[in-house]
Amino acid sequence: MKFFRNCFFVVLISCFAFNSHAQNSTAADTGSKINFNQTDAKGKRDGMWYIHQPARMGEDSYSEFGSYDHGIKFGKWYKTDNDGELVAIETFKNNVLNGEVKYFDKGHLYCVGHYRGLNPSQKYDTVMVVDPVTGAQSLVSVLAERGSLKHGTWQYYDPLTGRLEKEQEYQVDDLVYSKEFAMASVDSAYYKKKVQMLPHNAASGHYYKPPAGKQHSLTGTSE
pTM (2 decimals)? Predict the structure, then answer.
């Protein structure tokens, strides 16, 4: 889990910078000063930014941290939910998703995928595709206004055990391959044992019990 700890450390640094109103912070590894939440001469976001998005229109609040290049979102961006749990690590280029993305459920990895970002400065962009049967390569023209396309391998994991459950291959948003992986007997036994130990599973014997004298029935009478 070293990778997750490093991600969490990055988010903590960004939160500190935000709460300090983007004052100078000292990077522990280099000793250099880093300015957060800055703008360039034209008022465009530039450099490292921490952004908190309050809940709105039925969507939960979240925070994200990453870099801008004169108003253009690029590189890896880290997103956390309202509880500070890691939700996503996404890669951007020219303000659109491009490259590997990772998604998490309560901090546990459940999906790794790939996007192909389209060039927003052009009306059309071209993407190389491979025929899944013949292996022949060809270029496909796509409207750039579509932003990003699923393009490449997408893998889905059980967030509880880390077991690979499904693998898919996309080309220009089209699904060309899909395979589901059956659970091996040894994995099945491990999974069942882990599920039985969850606090909400009464079979584990570890579910929550109120202290004596604090137990109440639905009718309001003490048990």
Answer: 0.71
